[in-house]
Amino acid sequence: MATFVQAMRLALHVGEERLGVTDIFGEDVGPPLGGVFTATQGLRTAWNTPLDERGIVGMAMGLALAGQRPVCEIQFCDYAFNTVDLLKLAGAMHWSSNGAFACPMVLMTPVGAGIRGSIYHSHSFDATATRLPGWKIVMPSNPRDAYGLLLSAIRDPNPVMYLAPKALLRLKARPGEELPGEPGDEKALSKMIDAPLGDRSRWRAEWPKMEDLFVPIGEARTVRPGRDVSVVTYGRMVQASSAAADEVAREGIDVEIIDLRSLHPYDWPAIRATVKKTNRVLFLNEDTEVTNFGEHLIRRTVEELFYDLHAPPRLLAGKHVPGVGLADNLEHASVPQRAEIVAALRELARHEA
Amino acid sequence: MATFVQAMRLALHVGEERLGVTDIFGEDVGPPLGGVFTATQGLRTAWNTPLDERGIVGMAMGLALAGQRPVCEIQFCDYAFNTVDLLKLAGAMHWSSNGAFACPMVLMTPVGAGIRGSIYHSHSFDATATRLPGWKIVMPSNPRDAYGLLLSAIRDPNPVMYLAPKALLRLKARPGEELPGEPGDEKALSKMIDAPLGDRSRWRAEWPKMEDLFVPIGEARTVRPGRDVSVVTYGRMVQASSAAADEVAREGIDVEIIDLRSLHPYDWPAIRATVKKTNRVLFLNEDTEVTNFGEHLIRRTVEELFYDLHAPPRLLAGKHVPGVGLADNLEHASVPQRAEIVAALRELARHEA
Amino acid sequence: MISSPAVTSAKEKTLAPDALARVHDLMLRARVLEERLITMYKQGDGYFWIGGPGEEALSVPLGMLVHKGEGPEHDYLHLHYRSSGTLLALGADPVDSLRQMKNTATDPYSGGRNFASHYAVKRWNVVPVSSPIEVQFSMAPGTALANKRVPGGRGITIAQGGDAGTAEADFATCLVWSSRKGAELPVLMIVANNRYGISTPYEGQHGEVRISDRGKAFGIATATIDGNDAEAAHAGLAAAMDYVRAERRPFLLEAMVSRLYGHSSASGANFVREEDDCLARLEKKLVERKIKTQAEMDAARTRLTQELLEASKRVREEPQPTPESIWDHVFAGETSRDGGR
Amino acid sequence: MISSPAVTSAKEKTLAPDALARVHDLMLRARVLEERLITMYKQGDGYFWIGGPGEEALSVPLGMLVHKGEGPEHDYLHLHYRSSGTLLALGADPVDSLRQMKNTATDPYSGGRNFASHYAVKRWNVVPVSSPIEVQFSMAPGTALANKRVPGGRGITIAQGGDAGTAEADFATCLVWSSRKGAELPVLMIVANNRYGISTPYEGQHGEVRISDRGKAFGIATATIDGNDAEAAHAGLAAAMDYVRAERRPFLLEAMVSRLYGHSSASGANFVREEDDCLARLEKKLVERKIKTQAEMDAARTRLTQELLEASKRVREEPQPTPESIWDHVFAGETSRDGGR
Ligand SMILES: Cc1ncc(C[n+]2csc(CCOP(=O)(O)OP(=O)(O)O)c2C)c(N)n1
Ligand SMILES: Cc1ncc(C[n+]2csc(CCOP(=O)(O)OP(=O)(O)O)c2C)c(N)n1
Ligand SMILES: [Mg+2]
Ligand SMILES: [Mg+2]
Fold it and tell me: Cα of D289 to ligand 1 centre, how many Å?
């Protein structure tokens, strides 16, 4: 069972071998470290850049303009906010050149709280990302999607942002959700592709023969079918809402969970279907709550499905404060926790129209 | 009758004279130009910076940390997207230092379309700005508020962003809405404070004795009372919606227009009151429509006022495309025009719950 | 034909008569084009003008020296909004510039979306010129790395901007990324120093005596040249390009140029008599060297002016983009045009 | 007392015995503090460690030489996350660092919000240290302008960062903004060059032989010093600070230092034997010059270690911030805490 971060690494390897990736780069992405979360260990084309996020994005844009398929990383999305102008430009490249220049780059970056990352290792990026026209935005919540969405991102002729929930990076694939081609034995896989501790100068990864899996960008996944209340979410909150759904199930509340997986384009038919089914919906994410992507989804829901709603649609998101504080009390008060999700689900389910 | 941009200049002058402003700076802000829109002509403390927005914001932050009251300008908000990290940092300064360091800076920047500015002189900034916890955000729609909100922004101990709708900068104050202290005769005012064409090296402004006017940050203004439909808007769209309201008035639709004036903090009691009064609401702005501040307001409206709504609340905003194109057809298709506002008002008014 | 980099010696400070005549012809075409664009603006046939009159002695030789084509075997051009001379030297149709001025649907560079002088030509590696100052210098290392990867390749990357723009982060990024030891990149950075950023003079904004000095700490080869002298500019460019082509290392070239019609239409777009006019200088040379007569050149100017006047009338009749076209090209490939809606 | 800038001659390369003893005492305290923080992390009394062991020979003299106080008459300090030595030399209570490590409500620097070594001390002009690398260099010109405005003032601004961080835009911004001709600013830029950015070696990322060379094109005075030799560092800092104080112009100082416990707890926070230990070097000197005996110094270390161990136990009992405290200080002044909600 590959972990999320191993799945990323395997996808990048497939990218190098079969999808034309010639450069995987970012701060500490190359040897010896292979990424602060190990996502790029052992990759043939991985290299270390200067400590300059603007340069990283610019390098990716330049390579993409020259027809390459670069994959770059911003070490933490918290450090991508000095590149927003360049991200906008990448998203505008094809449009402003009237279709002449595509910009097929992938930008990967770890997002979200949940690892006690304090103010500058806990930011989310989904709200900012969805404000970048011309970009596709994906955010997997499990190893299989991590693999399949990264392959799709690499193949896509547009700039694609790949948001990796950092608290999930060590999550293992669930039985039945393996990556196609991964060795059955997880110890064996680790031996093959995880860099050893200590001196790595002579280490080479031994790659399993992976098969293709292109999870379509724009397609949601029903994580859990249910009758009573819908949760439309993505990333780390998929896990959090599953736990909450288990809890309220004991009270007879049957929750349907939709994992959007892609934030742009997003799967409106899937959202429409779940709202029409349960008539009660919670939009859930951990980015700050003022001018939040979930608010866009609520807007569209009330615009198109007002009379299908048996309760006011709800948003649960991060608090509008300057950062996520380090102390547990602070982090828990800042980003949605299970108890709050449970409370919101109960309220939605019990609401009498 | 002072124009919007004259009102800004007069407020900056008051800032220099009475509110402790020692530095007004940005690209082309000092002599000889005094700002690409003339907002800073003749000011004693105005100076030209290097062409480096990050440096401009950093300079303002440094001065503010040292207890000064800097006012900086980003020439067009389109060029502020390379500073988002610094803006976030300014907003976090007081909070992350546990209240030790305030950051009382004002950042002024022209926003919005309407001057055929093409891709990079038509951006809005309200969505991005409202995603900066710790900042106050104001956006005046007329000369009197332009004056009064700038004075309040300067006096505020927090970072305040002052978004100036560039299409309104030449707008004149309406009778009864003069600035306190401005000379009655607009030709006289122009002679006193508008720099002459040609050589300006010996020109000095002659400032009228202006009176204080502190428009409170966080307080909306009812531009037009009405019974049937509410428009909650700000900036350039205040004018556009007024024209639309005149048009539908002929059909017997009585529109109430709320000019928010402050986007953060915003005047929720005013929004609640108008929604409870008309039960039908249009949120209107010209920023792109995915993850838009108006969507936040809709979210809050459905969360708190769901059963007061006799029609689904509507958002009218800019299209989610990479930019505003130059040709008139393109600009008109990209940002809300009067005809669309009229259509939305009709639809809201006629909607049968 | 002198434009093949292979045959242009960097040492030639004097160009052969036919070469100089060709430079003049292109500079004249560039000037006449800009004057037409300014007139269009002033007559209401466009909303905004910005362009390159005063930079032709630099921009034309640059275009002539480019190893032109598509893909990493060829030169990549990250230009600025004063590069019309370079485009004409590459072979661009001046009428397309009129189309962009008039924001017609037929504007091949942006489909009526962008301001005049915002070029994008895929078949010549002219990557999209965009309004934000200096961002081209952050992208240049990327195309340069693609150039470098071509085995035996001679393609290089050229990034050009103004003097004031060097204060932006991106200029420093290009210095840092192109000079990494062992990973140097074939980038020619050109700073067209007209001593102004809009209204702000160079003096008071710079601690550097020469902007090109900023390369030195990074071990980058540098030069500052007179960009108003077509021959000096040609020689300086050829030398710098030869170096970058052969050494696969960066070069920082500063060229002193003029801003002949001010910053843009926002500042009036009127001829500035105090500035050194590179075209007049070249014409004087041509007369002195008896390569062309003033009468010949004046006649050519009149003819070209007339041609573009005619063309501008035709362009006026071309269609404007449709409202729905805002959705075109948001995405490459087959994605539904508005992603999710 | 040698810490008053007025009496420290820049020329002294050898410090007087009592001065050197004082430097040692503070360096030892700084080292012991960092070791305690690392232990707290390893024992689960904190979530993350980053700090300055290996930079004490630089950070301590810096703190001693600061013209300490609040407001533009005094020095502003824009430090990085390896500046504990500077804080202790200024007079900070090491227990407050333990509080930040344990993210208690009593942490005076951030109220339990920020990582260890993220200082903010209003009364000493220590502006908030924040995690994003290098942004301090964009803010420094602002406090320096405030310093400069004080008539007859001697206060200066000091901005410090690492070697890898100089690739960020902000470093270039500080060079550009502090050296504008006629508007030079009293900024001392310090680069603590430990030859690594996390796992990435200096070699391969820099075209510069010396980072300090980057100042030269701007006419900025520069020096590179041995930051592992407390006396050399003291002299280098004193010379640079005297220059900035007197001339009201910028100075770029590069100091070669060590990273004694790796990058942070993320890389294990274990002692790196290959690195030059500035404290060991100083102790050798003190023994050689017979200023202190090794036994005395070892005893001091044991005593200080014990004191901090005790303190860390007490800190463990101090309250954690309350959940509601996330709303505190979002705004200065009387604004409703959450603006609009
Ligand atoms: C990032 C950015 N900031 C500001 C502007 C507004 N602006 C347009 S041109 C210009 C001056 C450019 O000066 P310089 O780099 O010297 O080039 P020149 O126009 O003189 O050729 C400015 C400030 C911009 N286009 N982009
Ligand atoms: C803007 C930004 N990008 C990335 C990081 C992640 N990061 C933390 S420390 C570091 C390396 C810093 O190296 P250097 O500047 O040499 O300082 P040192 O840690 O060696 O003292 C990086 C990349 C960050 N904190 N901020
Ligand atoms: Mg210039
Ligand atoms: Mg380092």
Answer: 60
Q: How does pLDDT run across A143-182, given as a tens digit for each residue?
A: 999 999 999 999 999 999 999 999 999 999 999 999 999 9
Burial class (CB in 10 A: 0-12, 13-18, 19+), B272: middle
Q: Which two tokens stand for residue A335?
A: 């980003």
Nearest to D253 by CA among D268, D238, D265, D266: D238
B83-141 residue pLDDT tens: 999 999 999 999 999 999 999 999 999 999 999 999 999 999 999 999 999 999 999 99
C25 CB-near residues (< 8 Å, 6+ apart): C300
Q: Is A49 in the pocket of ligand 2 (CB under 6 A)?
A: no
Q: Going by DSSP bridges, is the β-strand pair B281-288/B314-318 parallel, antiparallel, or unpaired?
A: parallel
Provide the H-helix boundaries in chain D: 17-42, 56-65, 84-90, 94-101, 136-149, 169-178, 230-247, 278-288, 294-316
Comparing C12 with C322, the larger pLDDT belongs to C322
Q: Which of these is catalytic: B13, B94, B121, B264?
A: B121
Token code pair at residue C285 = 């040379």
* Most ligand 2 atoms within 8 A of CB, residue of D55, D56, D133 to mutate: D133
Is residue A104 reached through a cis peptide bond, with omega within 30 degrees of 0 on the bond before it? no
The strand pair at D200-201 and D196-197 is best described as: antiparallel
Position A135 pLDDT exceeds 90: yes
Q: How far apart are CA B64 and CA B48, in angstroms?
A: 18
Q: Is residue A330 predicted with pLDDT exceeding 50?
A: yes
Contacts of A120 in chain D (CB under 8 A): 130-132
DSSP codes of every residue in B47-69: EEPPS-HHHHHHHHHHHHHTT--
**What is the per-residue pLDDT across B40-82, written as a single tens digit (0 to 9) for each?**
999 999 999 999 999 999 999 999 999 999 999 999 999 999 9
Tell me if B4-212 shares its fold with B221-350. yes
Which H or E run contains A187? helix A186-193
Residue nearest to atom 21 of ligand 2 (CA): D162
Contact D160, D80 (CB under 8 A): yes
Residue-level length of chain A: 353
Considering the domain C2-282+292-318 in this protein, what is its CATH number? 3.40.50.970
Q: Would the pTM of this model clear 0.90, i.e. be above it?
A: yes
State the DSSP string of B214-271.
-PPTT--EEEE--SSEEEEE-THHHHHHHHHHHHHHTTT--EEEEE--EEES--HHHH
Around Cβ C324, how many Cβ atoms within 10 Å?
A: 11
Q: Which residues of B touch C (CB under 8 A)?
A: 27-28, 30, 32-33, 36, 48-55, 78-79, 82, 116, 118-121, 319-323, 325-330, 332-334
What is B4-212's CATH topology? Rossmann fold (3.40.50)
The domain B221-350: what is its CATH number? 3.40.50.920
Orientation angle between helical segments C94-101 and C294-316, nearest 10 degrees = 50
Q: Rounded distance, CA A94 to CA A84, Å?
A: 17
In eight-state DSSP terms, residue D110 is: T
Question: Residue A104: its chain C contacts at CB < 8 A?
Answer: 332
> Are the C-beta atoms of residues B121 and B325 closer than 8 Å to each other?
no
Domain boundaries, chain B: 4-212, 221-350
User: What average pLDDT does the segment D159-169 reach?
Assistant: 98
Q: Give the C-alpha separation, B322 to C187, whole Å.
A: 29
Tokens encoding A316: 């649960």
- A279 DSSP 8-state letter: S
Residue type, C126: V
Per-residue pLDDT tens over the stretch D234-261: 999 999 999 999 999 999 999 999 999 9
Omega within 30 of 0 (cis) for the link into A159: no
Q: Which residues of C150-187 are buried (b: 16+ CB within 10 A; e: fewer)?
A: eeebbbbbbbbbbbbbbbbbbbbbbbbbbbbeebbbbb
